[in-house]
Amino acid sequence: MSVPLLMFLAFVGLTLVVTFWAAKKNTGASAYFAAGRSITGWQNGLAVAGDYMSAASFLGISGMICFSGYDGFMYSVGFLVAYITVLLVVAEPLRNAGKYTMADLLAYRLKPRPVRALASLSTLTVSTFYMIAQMVGAGVIIKRLIGLEFAPAVIGVGILMLVYVVFGGMLATTWVQIIKALLLMAGAFLLSYLVLKHHGFSFTAFFESVSKADYGGSAPPKNLLEPGLKYGVAVAGPWGPLDLISLCLGLVLGTAGLPHILVRFYTVPDAKTARSSVVWAMAIIGLFYIMTTFFGFGAATILKKSLILTADGKPDTNMVAPILAQHLGGELFFAFISAVAFATILAVVAGLTMSASASFAHDFYTNVIHHGKEHRPGEEVRVARITAFCVGAVSIGIAIYLGPSVNAAFLVGLAFAVAASANLPVIVFSVFWKRFNTTGAVVGLATGLVSSIVLILLSPNGMFGKAGAVFPLENPGIVSIPLGFFAAWLGTVLTARDPEAEAKFAELKVRAHTGLGAEKATAH
Amino acid sequence: MSEKSPVNWEQLESKPEFRSMLGHKARFIISATIFFLIYYLALPVLVGYWPDLMKKKLWGEVNVAYVFALSQFFMAWIMAFIYVRVAAKWDKEAAQVIEGHH
To answer: Is residue B16 one of the residues assigned to a domain?
Structure first.
């Protein structure tokens, strides 16, 4: 057996042990969905970071920077700055007023059934989008690692992740996230170290060669530090700069609407811990994204084009970081980085499946179909497990359809835009606007969801290709986010005031801002 | 537990201590949000529409665009640091508001 394969198996074994260990301690819905609310601030911070830094961050961004230079680095910046939105606007109210899912917050003072139905639909959509990117990333890694074809590789990863979630629940995924976050930071640090070593540990020399990046002498030099290689007018046409702004808007507002990040704040004992976990996460995530400078730009100075182009001459946009590791550190380091990337993906997939299935079981099955009552004890957990299988299967199918060459960071950028358009407006209005009513929430969620998806389908990457695109931008955020806010507002002001919802606003306000009556931690 | 709680939310909400805490909070959060959104969105706007300005070199080959992008990380960290300091004060105010309701 090859070394990469052995290391890979060792990791899978280790995480399964953690999963089974957690499964033994796991009783009841609060333990399954919210880890008994017993996670501490730094643990949750690491777990948030683990949930967040996905195939997109490691594989996607490094590829994007290697081929598009500075414009790819915009993803790194946006992914971090987005956490200020989370910190200032959503983390604490959510922890104080919710139970398991984002919809709990909305259902607080609005009519629960329609709101929960749509919120769970939007959660499933965003999670599936995000998951497709992970599946693509996992597929290319496994393809390279074991030599499997893309499709069977993707299916294999899917089955593994389901084992995780089905046995472990949220406590297991929390520990998986923590281990994975530490591994990923170690991998990124080593990779950056080797790149700097290659440039004689001189930042001046490093940036000097990035400004004349020639892909190991295999291409004419170009200055990757200059913006515009992807979104500049010369490359992307007159809509390019607006597309960049649209991307950035989606990134900075999207994180606060990502269901799998939001559910993380239910695993901590109180709002104060929620706050400190965001800060921990920001420290870790920020360091990671700054390091993308070294392995993203660095790859373009070191790796020959022949190494990072696929057989048909297209950029191999998701494999730059592992190939760089192989080139600089040999087979063992390649094995390590591949295992880290794989762990990264597996952990994110577990978190995503968890939040999507929690939302479907808790919001849709129990609260919409069964009016808030569990028919048999444990039914909610069982439905969650079935949902996990379905979401997994759909993402696997779409990932295989899209194939290995679509960039993971780009796909995740789209998931962010959908989240920002559908989820953020209703979260913000329900916490900060007394007049907000059920119609507003339903119209806002639906409009944000449908408009962002439709714009993606009509974009240059959509159904009609570059030439037939009806919508000129690749990123829908600049249109669909304001539209989501506008629809939520319009739906509210055009319909009758809801005295019940307004009366409960006082309660929500006190709860959200003081933590009175918030769900408590359960003793373990 | 929450459904059966005898807490008078209306009364708590109208307490002057609560109103004043909320005022402090709103003032900080709104101004901080406006600041960071402008600071952040200035980056794609400048990069997209004033590329020549952003390509100016500051230190060796490092240009304005990269330095501005890097500064976003520090902006975010400083913002988080300030928020945590300020929020600790709100925690105390909130504790006073709900005193006797635990």
So the answer is: no
- Given a contact cutoff of 8 angstroms between Cβ atoms, the answer to whether A404 and A150 are in contact is yes
Residue B7 belongs to a domain: no
Inter-chain contacts counted by CB atoms under 8 A, chains A and B: 154
The shortest C-alpha distance from B9 to chain A (Å) reads 5
Find the domain containing B67 and state its range.
21-97
The CA distance from A295 to A330, in Å, is 16
Would residue B1 count as lying in a domain?
no
Alpha-carbon distance values, A192 to A70, B40, B43 (Å): 17, 26, 25
Using CA atoms, how far apart are residues A110 and A126, in angstroms rounded to an integer?
Answer: 22
Report which of A22, A19, A24, A34 is spatially closest to residue A355, judged by C-alpha positions: A34
pTM of the predicted structure, to 2 decimals = 0.90
Q: How is residue A80 written in tokens?
A: 């971090």
What residue in A sits closest to B27 (Cα-Cα)? A88
3-state secondary structure of B91: helix
Residue in A with minimal Cα distance to B73: A286
Are residues A88 and B21, on separate chains, in Cβ contact within 8 Å?
A: no
Q: Which residues contact A116 (CB under 8 A, 6 or more apart)?
A: A103, A106, A107, A363, A364, A367, A368
Candidate from B32, B41, B97 with C-beta closest to A248? B41
State the ipTM, two decimals: 0.90
How confident is the model over A218-268, as pLDDT tens digits?
889 899 999 999 999 988 889 999 999 999 999 999 999 998 888 888 777
A515 contacts B43? CB cut-off 8 A? no
CB-nearest to A252 from B7, B40, B49 is B40
Q: Which member of A244, A513, A517 has the closest CB to residue B25?
A: A513
Of B48, B62, B72, the CB nearest to A245: B48
Q: Do B18 and A241 touch (CB under 8 A)?
A: no
- Interchain CB distance below 8 Å, B61 and A278: no
Cβ distance of B63 and A515 shorter than 8 Å: no
Say which amino acid occupies A70.
Y
* Of B71, B73, B69, B75, the residue nearest A224 (C-alpha): B69
Domains contained in chain A, CATH given: 3-365+372-514 (1.20.1730.10)
Please count the structural domains in chain B. Answer: 1
> What are φ and ψ of residue B63, in 5° steps?
-105, 175
pLDDT digits (tens, 9 = 90+) for A166-219: 666 555 667 777 888 888 899 999 999 999 999 999 999 999 999 998 888 888
Residue B53 lies in a domain: yes
**Which sign does the torsion angle of CA A516, A521, B1, B3 carry?**
positive
